[in-house]
Write a structure and sequence with these properties.
There is one protein chain. By secondary structure, this protein is of the alpha/beta class. The chain has two domains: 188 residues, Isopropylmalate Dehydrogenase, CATH 3.40.718.10; 158 residues, Isopropylmalate Dehydrogenase, CATH 3.40.718. It contains twelve helices and twelve strands. The strands form two sheets. A ten-stranded mixed sheet has the order 2-1-3-12-11-4-5-10-8-9, with helices on both faces. It has a two-stranded antiparallel ribbon with strand order 6-7. Strand 6 and strand 7 form a beta hairpin. Bound molecules: nicotinamide-adenine-dinucleotide (NAD). The site of nicotinamide-adenine-dinucleotide has 22 residues, from helix 4.
């Protein structure tokens, strides 16, 4: 189990340090985990003049899985576009051919009060969004700017999916649903878009291989509404890049703090890049205030999806639930007046719960 640790910038090093301690516990308990660290983002630029140094990419390619902290920060905002920290993440996603993005939105009952929705609507929420990551309107050609016949400037992009691209993400959706509540909702805009009509046809065809999973289809505008009206109706949602981008951010807010939410980006062989969904939080970096739980929960996803060790994943998730039940809260998930613990104390508590 070779794991590349890419802490990045801002709070990245602090939260990845706590996750690495979780790996230490599992290694002591017998899992054959090897880790290697490398700089990415602004740290990559500082160390080697590039947000994705060649040596970092080589380590990530040689690894079975990658744990990333976060990148970015005000120091790097003035760099030219190709040297900016986020190019490190975009570059590694592309180099590793990560096409499936898995984003769970889980609301632990202990945190129901920090969600922006009423507790009865969100308490116990546990949904997974499977988003296609390498196709769609962000990458379709042609795209660009031109002057039209009437002399007006116009911009244009092309929504584009091929049947094999839809099929492989649909299969990730069905497999994910099969390992959970066996319900898959495919989200599209088939009442308007040709791309979506093909999407729906392919997903329906693939469904024949998964008779044990209940498939439904929903238009994206309705899905956006249902997510805030009755989010617990969903188990797994599968959708394209653009719709998934928007719906997964919407879903993350149901869960309260972005400090709690992990993610996985997988290739065709289940190699993955695992990272919290939040950024580098420069406003609290270096102050022992960051919540490390999203990063620790990203490790749980790593054991479930790359290493097929649901037992280790459940053990990590159980430890996180336990520290929440014990009342530990970092600042982002504390209610007004509640005492907050630091990054390290939260990591200590998870390690203790694991042990
Ligand atoms: P952000 O997610 O870093 O922070 C938003 C707010 O959430 C801040 O108030 C921050 O303190 C808080 N927050 C975030 N993570 C937290 C945690 N683990 N614990 C407690 N509080 C947390 O988003 P931003 O402020 O828009 O961006 C800051 C930098 O991060 C920018 O340079 C941006 O480009 C970068 N960014 C990186 C990624 C990534 O690495 N994947 C994603 C988003 C933003």
């Amino acid at each position: 189990m070779r794991v590349a640790l890419l802490p990045g910038d801002g709070i990245g090093p602090e939260i990845v340090r706590e996750a690495a301690r979780v790996l230490d516990v599992l290694r002591l308990d017998g899992l054959p985990i090897e880790t290697e660290s490398a700089p990415i983002g602004g740290a990559g630029h500082d160390a080697a003049g590039h947000p994705l140094p060649e040596a970092t990419l080589a380590i990530a390619k040689a690894a079975d899985a990658v744990l990333l902290g976060a990148v970015g920060g005000p120091t790097y905002d003035t760099l030219p576009r190709e040297l900016r920290p986020e190019q490190g993440i975009l570059g590694i996603r592309k180099a590793l051919a990560l096409f499936a993005n898995l984003r769970p939105a889980i609301l632990y009952p202990e945190l129901a009060a920090v969600s922006s929705l009423k507790p009865e609507i969100v308490a116990g929420l546990d949904l997974m969004i499977v988003r296609e990551l390498t196709g769609d309107i962000s990458f379709g050609q042609p795209r660009g700017r031109r002057r039209n016949a009437a002399g007006h400037d116009e911009g244009f992009d092309t929504m584009h999916y091929s049947a094999p691209e839809i099929e492989r993400i649909a299969r990730v959706g069905f497999e994910t649903a099969r390992a959970r509540g066996r319900k898959l909702c495919s989200v599209d805009k088939a009442n308007v878009l040709d791309t979506s009509i093909l999407w729906r046809e392919v997903v329906t065809r693939v469904a024949k291989d998964y008779p044990d999973v209940a498939l439904s289809h929903m238009y994206v505008d309705n899905a956006a509404m249902q997510l805030v009206r009755a989010p617990k109706q969903f188990d797994v949602i599968v959708t394209g890049n653009l719709f998934g981008d928007i719906l997964s951010d919407e879903a993350s807010m149901l869960a309260g703090s972005i400090g709690m939410l992990p993610s996985a980006s997988l290739d065709a062989n289940r190699k993955g890049l695992y990272e919290p969904i939040h950024g580098s939080a420069p406003d609290i970096a270096g102050q022992d205030r960051a919540n490390p739980l999203a990063t620790i929960l990203s490790l749980a996803m790593m054991f479930r999806y790359t290493f097929a060790r649901a037992d280790a994943a459940e053990r990590i998730e159980w430890a996180v639930r336990r520290v929440l039940a014990q009342g530990l809260r970092t600042g982002d998930i504390a209610r007004p007046g509640e005492r907050a613990v630091g990054t390290k104390a939260m990591g200590d508590a998870v390690v203790a719960a694991l042990s």
